[in-house]
Amino acid sequence: MAAEVTAATVDAARWPKTWVAPRTRGRWKELRWRASAQLVLGELLEKQWMEPAIPLAVLIAVTASFVIAVPGMGEFDNVISTLRELSEFALVVIGMGIVVISGGIDLSVGSMFALNNYVALLLGLIVGLPMWLTTLLVLGLGCLMGACNGVLVAYLKAKPFLATMVALLVYRGITNLLDEHFSMSIATKGTIQDPFWTWLGTGSVLGVPTAIVFLIVVVLVGHVMLSRSRLGWHITAVGASRKAARHAGIDVERVLLSSYVFSGLLTAMAAMLYASRVNSLSPYTALGMEFTALTAAVLGGISLAGGNGTVPRALIGAATITILSKGLLLMNVGGEIYTLIQAMILLLVVGVDIKWAKNRAKAIQKIYINPTYLHFEPAPSIAPNDNSPFAINDRLSNSMPIGLGVVEGPEDVLLDAQGRLYTGDRRGWIWRFSGENFDRAEIFAKIGGMPLGMQWDKNGNLIICIGGMGLYGVDPLGRVTKLTDETNRTWYRLKDDSRLRLADDLDIAPDGKIYFSEASVRFEAHDWIEDGLEGRRNGRLICYDPATKTTRTVLKRLVFPNGVAVSHDGNSVLIGQTWLCRILRYWIAGPKKGEVEVFVENLPGYVDNINRASDGNYWVALVGIRSPVFDLAYAHPRFRRRMMKRIPRDEWLYPSMNYGCIIKITEKGEVLESYWDPTGNAHATVTSMREHDGFLYIGGLNNNRVGRIKLAGGGRP
Fold first, then answer.
1. pLDDT tens for residues 603-613?
2. Quick check: is 534 in a domain?
3. pTM to 2 decimal places
């Protein structure tokens, strides 16, 4: 059937429409369903940086409420005072957060804070050490106390809760003993007169208070350490699963020890800033701080289960608790009420954290898949006795099996100049069959992923699209080389589409450029069927230039582009759109360069690979056959959405992908003939075919063989 290019089928600007007929109602429905708030929400929730969105919103709401409700809350002096207090508290929360991310807990931070505060004033006033030396000694003491906790948890295998609870009692007891012996002496000494001490407490750097400068540096260094360094990755891995981390070769004990040392160091730093600002001591200093710090860490989005959290999240939680505390203080709310509020917040946040962690993936899945509207004309008849090129026959039923039971899922097939057959295997292998009846099988290469489309380049290298990995090459000796696994990113998309998720089929133009399809930028290779249920323009055509080693996207917003074939004259590329049951032509040379037009449409099945025939025509694989039920379901996106939300995945209505055929079309898009296996015994699916020396070789994603049939009238290689 010849495809007539009209305004109804081709976008006047550049892109092909998803509707097929000039129906006004269908146009409006397609446009209405194309834009979707659910689509944006699904991609937002998938983002890692969206996880602290709710804690950030809570911080903004709390800040705005107190600034409006409490007189003087927003004044400059009060803001500076709040920021100094925040700096000290946030350092403790960050230390607590690192421990929680590693899968532990540190209930001794309040006692460590009080003891370090006491030691700082004791060394400065009684011993008379220089304050820079005092600072180093106090920081060292903080590391030592953190290391003691780490040894108990990591090497002596004590439970973190019990170990740090004991440490809390020990450190608080030492503080009380020091207070009994030195409180009067320290009180009579007055304050420390030292420029460094004064700079720590009330000084500034370029107008920014010293404490805030320390906090900024710690936040930046801590964020880089957790997200970019090997130690940070190991801390997260240990928190997610100690067993898995150990199997991966991570020194779990050393990582746990390091996290507690960080907690001790940051707590000691906070105590130094507090001591230099307040210049007073009390055995009740930081009493209950451990629970306040834990509340802040969890409120910021650090999971108590471990393995999930960042330094900025700890800062958000610390800021929320600090502003809440300051606001209630200015409102003259008693400490008992504040403690009650804090306990309620911790209980609520922990409950939400556990519930969200348990159901997050399920919730995102229900939101993420967002079906759109597609309209189809009635499918052509495939009745056996119908006078139609699509009429069912048995031309594939008696095909000769090659590699029967040896290969698993030969999605594409290819032959070399010596007549040897190559095909992929779902186990990540490339098989080579040779001999008179292809009875000699050998593994040509192991590529580590599912091989899909294949083609030879001019140097005899095998170029392969690997699902989930990208575009790879295999030289004649079987050595594997990565060509590209990314392309230019679309700047306005929320989802990063620079990585290749589902490179599918390819062909090579006369100038050596490799054109290949990426079926979906929203779904991974193992979730390709979900793209079919969604039906959106998630795919693209990409070009890789071996001469410059550059990759660029040449066509975007295609509905599951699958098969790719360069035309016989090299001026255009044919692109099969699986879910739309049609083929596009994209001009890469000549007067129409850059234009897109419909080549053939309204096919009876779902288009897969496309390859050139020896007589100037094209072979097209239909991996599945349309059904009236699913055609109707495509026109009702609400039905598909409810289906995916309300019933189990294995009961969803899917496109029929287990009954396909091969068709032959002309350069003008006219269908000449078709090849079927009505029993499905030899070829349950057909995803590719190659013509070679008068034979047609058939591959199928779910088959356990490669088929071969003799073509009537012979052919040429």
1. 999 999 999 99
2. yes
3. 0.73
